[in-house]
Structure of RNA helicase:
Amino acid sequence: MNPSFQELGLSEERVQQLETLGFTEPTNIQAQAIPHLLSGRDVVGQSQTGTGKTAAFSLPILERLDVNHRAVQALVLAPTRELAIQVHDAVSTFIGNSGLRTAAIYGGQSIDRQIMQLRRGVHIVVGTPGRVIDLLERGSLKLDYVRWFVLDEADEMLSMGFIDDVEKILSQAPTERQTALFSATMPPSIRQLVNNYLNDPVTVTVQQPKAAPNKINQVAYVVPRNWSKARALQPILEMEDPESALIFVRTRRTAAELTSQLQSAGHSVDEYHGDLSQQARERLLGRFRNRQVRWVVATDIAARGLDVDQLSHVINFDLPDSVETYVHRIGRTGRAGKEGTAITLVQPFERRKQQIFERHVRQAWQVLPIPTRAQIEARYIQKLQEQVREALTGERLASFLPIVRELSEEYDAHAIAAAALQLAYDQTRPAWLQTEADATEEELLSPTPKPKLRGGGGSPRREYSGERRGGRSWDNGEGGRGEGGRGEGGRSVKPKLKGGSSSPRRESAASGKKIGSVSAAQESASS
DNA sequence: AAAAAAT
């Protein structure tokens, strides 16, 4: 049990205001970081996504800011525009009616509006490096009175692509300031840089509490030799039937190409990457969050921090570049204590890289062959059965009984039920569920090639069994954990039916507001 | 080598 916000040193007023927002109990990272920040220390904060990092640094800043001095006193930098927007929105919710003013400063948007905002005077700026530098050079943004400097996704901000910009910005801020770095990951190479920017920092590391393990099932689908990944993806999507998914690819071009392929197959999917206009980017995210689009094919622009509620699947169509990126990508799912599935397509030559990732997250992935047509059929039948069981307990059943009574004068009850099932099966079949025309039956039934010359166990379902190494603390959140609930039993091939399938009707769980932890508003806060 | 970030 963490101390209350009040015990952490926040004012009565702020605590009251947090309560009206529904935040009554600090998360671990908040409990650890807030007192240090209030006392003026520099802080390096690491905790998994979805743990309230934004609140951890915003609350102390809000507490100590001088409202009567209308100058930029805090600067927060983030690696993508959308992240800057999210953090800005989160900070805004914590402000209440204190009279504090904030601005989001990022590219792809009218610079004049931002200049106007700055001219009117703001206390907190949240932004991306490019536009911040632009406004510094135009003289519209002044950092002379900055007392807090925060890097969100700090390891990314201190990496090659950003470090020069960050240094340029820092050179204009007073050296007498408080600096905080937050991220879920911190590779050793970046860790070494920290003391260049921070003054005697406190490092605050929060492991995931045992009681609330991160529920991400991690799965590798092995792409058979000579299969394209696009070909392998189709049966995987049919089998998993993701309610909502982020599909990660390495390049913008692949994002565009894969998106058209999936769209022509009839899927509800769109692309998201840096080639799009800012307007298109934000519009897409809106449609994704409202569930108007089920799946999004994205570059690593979406890997970090992006907050989409209830994302059921993350699919790595291309392996990520680094273990850190892997951690951030899969962190888009399994949020707010919900279950999530992270799928990675692994080509035979990538198995070594796969093992490195597995070791890093200290969790073995479930390794599966590409689902066969028969397995996909069986899965749909299974879902149909579940729906029938559910319907049998429903209230509306009674209204259909007279029809059954009438039919049963002529037919056997089993036959009537079977006919009704057949109709349900045919009518709920998704338009895109099709057999692969170019694959032979034999290929479909055993898509994983059996090793010919190489000796050893050729079982298509191999589980990672490497030793688990301890010792890494910074760059990964969690120790090992048991297998997710994805036993192979659920995938056994039983009946083979021709025809379509039933599409699952999943209940949309209401998102409860978990105190101090992830809820829509605050998680933006966090990662 | 690619992605992100200013136009």
Remarks:
- Residues 5-210 of chain A form a domain with the Rossmann fold fold (CATH 3.40.50.300).
- The first strand of chain A starts at residue 43 and ends at 46.
- Chain A has 21 helices and 14 strands.
- Residues 79-81, 106-108, 111, 128-134, 156, 161-162, 165, 250-252, 273-274, 299-301, 303, 321 of chain A lie near DNA strand B (CB under 10 Å from a C1').
